[in-house]
Input
Amino acid sequence: MIKSVVSKEYQELQKEIVLLQDKWKQQINPETIRPNLDKAAMEAGVPAAALSAIDFEISLYLQWIEEINAMLIINNPELEPKLASIISLLTEEVAIRWIEEAFSSNHVYFVKFAEENGLEEWIPQFLAETALRPYLQLTAEKVQDEITHAIPGAGCPVCGEPVRLASLNEDGRKVIHCPRCLAHWNAKRLECAHCGNEDHKTIEFITIEGDAVSQIQVCEECNGYIKIIDTRQYIEKPSAALLDLNSIHLDFVAQENGYNAVGVKKDTH
Ligand SMILES: [Zn+2]
Ligand SMILES: [Zn+2]
Output
C-alpha cells in the first residue's frame, strides 16, 4: 500500500475504491467460498480465510484490475503509460500467483515483480490487494457469526491483517475491526491485541488534542498500538476501511512516539 501519500486526493480515491469493492463483492457467487473452520487451527492463530476453499474466478479478478486501472487513470492521467502493460502481463498463472501472494501480503514478491517488469514499485501489490479484498470481505461475512475473539499477535482471525483499529460500542465495550476484510470481534478493554498483555500499569492511552472521539492504546510490553474510536455519537457508522483511513493521523502520532502497528515481544531474560 502507498503509506506515504495521504493527501485529500488519496483519501477520495480510497473512498471510490471502497465503493467499487462493495460492488464487486456482489458479483461473487457465494457458493465459491467454502469455510472449513477447524477450531484447533483457529486457536493456533490460523486465519479463517486460509482454512477456506475459495474458487477464485480469474476472469472476474482481471476485470476488477482493469476497473481499478481505469479509475486510477481518471484520477491521474499520467499513470496511463505506467499501467498499460499490466493486463498483458496477467496470464491466468500470474493472476493466481498474485492472489496467493496478496493473500499473504508478500511485499518482497511484488517488489520483485515490479522490478522485473519495469513497473513502479507500488503498482502490482496495490492492484493485487485491491482486487483480492472482495473475496476476503465475503469470506468474513460468511464466518462472522463464528468469529468471537482473536488470538493476541495472530492478527485478524479472518484474514491475518495486523490489528490496528477498534471502536467502542453502545455499552462502551471494545470491538476490534479489520479494515481489510471488515470482520469484527470483541476484545477486553485493557488487553493488548498484539501480545495479550492485560497489566493496566503497562497499557496506556494517548489522547489527541482537539479530537474527543479518538485515543491510541499503547502497550509498553511490546510497543504495539491500536486506535480506538468512540463511534457512539456517529449517526451513520462509517465502514472500518474508511474509519481506518480517516484516523490516519493517529497512526502518525503513535509511530512518532515509537509504537508499531505490529507488536514485538520484548526479550525479558
Ligand atoms: Zn481481516
Ligand atoms: Zn503488547
